[in-house]
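Hey,

Quick one before I head out. I ran the complex with inosinic acid overnight. Inputs first:
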Amino acid sequence: MSKNIAVIGIQWGDEGKGKIVDFLSEKADVVVRFQGGNNAGHTVVVNGKTTKLHLIPSGILHEHCINIIGNGVVLSPSALLEEIIELEKHNIAPRGRLYISQNCPLILPYHITLDQTREKAKGSSAIGTTGRGIGPAYEDKVARRAIRAVDLFDENNFAEKLKTVLDYYNFILTQFYHADPVDYPKTFDETMRLAEELKPLIVNTTEKLHEFYRAQKKIMFEGAQGTMLDIDHGTYPFVTSSNTTAGGISTGAGFGPRYVEEIMGISKAYTTRVGAGPFPTELLGKDGDSLRQKGAEFGATTGRPRRCGWFDAPVVRYAAMLNSLTGLCITKLDVLDGMKTIKICTHYEYRGKKLEIPSTDLNTFAACKPIYEEWPGWDKPTAGLQDYDRLPQAAKNYLKRLEKLVGVPIQIISTGPARTDTVVLKQQF
Ligand code: IMP
């Protein structure tokens, strides 16, 4: 039984982490986000009711759970407050058990304007970002000009920083992109109004987290996006702007690598991707459409249709290595119910050479040919099953093959969107 666990997406995001984190947080005391921002979209179904979370950790849906937004997260004050109010409408009270790091760089309106303006200007070479200002906010952090959560406590200091940063952004917006500038007084007033609501939640979260750790609380680290979207290890430049891999926990929450005990990788039983960039096992046309419809593969944040394809073992194998995975969770097995045959990409071929993991050189990756095995499907549904022994033999064979190809044991299988649609092979916590 572990005392803490990280849950990491090991494809291109949208692996169903929300449901698994929600499922595991029933037993967790603390849930921590450590990277990304409100570009994430977790759809969780509780008692038949769908809730979408973008920024607040999924643990918020359990009354006993403390939730932490670590310093590695870029924080939009308006998105956060909207989410708090939405949860309150559903009789869930985040205030009092949600802490925000004082070091979080803020996402303010000029980040969103620049993100969207830049994407538009790029035309067909656009990244396909979520348009939430994530990239520009991380750029400010690294350029050491970010306005951080702690800056909301000193109005004069905030006014001065905002003026400097906005001058810089408005120059780029008007002179380089020939777009409209962002209004200073409006941004100032609006942010100060939001600050009054958020200030009680802003603390030194690293200190808090270590207090919980010393008190032997059960801690879960909730990854956002997926390994292939990692700024360093993903399919650059078609990536997000943070480290989505397990290493991000240390920097993004102030929790040293030696303290993380279990690292569970979440993967769908097939593959999806939103946004642009190479995707070797992508299914185009009718086959892709049918997987998309069956799996309801439309983005939780933007509603965009997701690109769908077969399970890509090189991607998951690469993720196992990068994240030092201790276990796998396979989600959406039920989406494959009723298929006659199912393909698995075991490796790629590139110029006659066998590749076991993806190349991070975009041109090489785009030219990789997926090499498939074809496995028999199953007629009896897996949807809603909770007991491994009741899975059809063909589904068990399929899962065993994935496990062997990746080299990491499967510990959880998800057979539907509800909390109860879950097969647990190894108890966490
Ligand atoms: P950004 O994170 O908005 O800058 O978008 C960069 C890339 O990451 C785009 O391809 C997005 O579609 C993708 N992305 C960002 N967040 C998510 C997510 O939560 N799931 C899947 N893809 C995401």
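The radius of gyration is 21 Å.

Talk tomorrow,
K.
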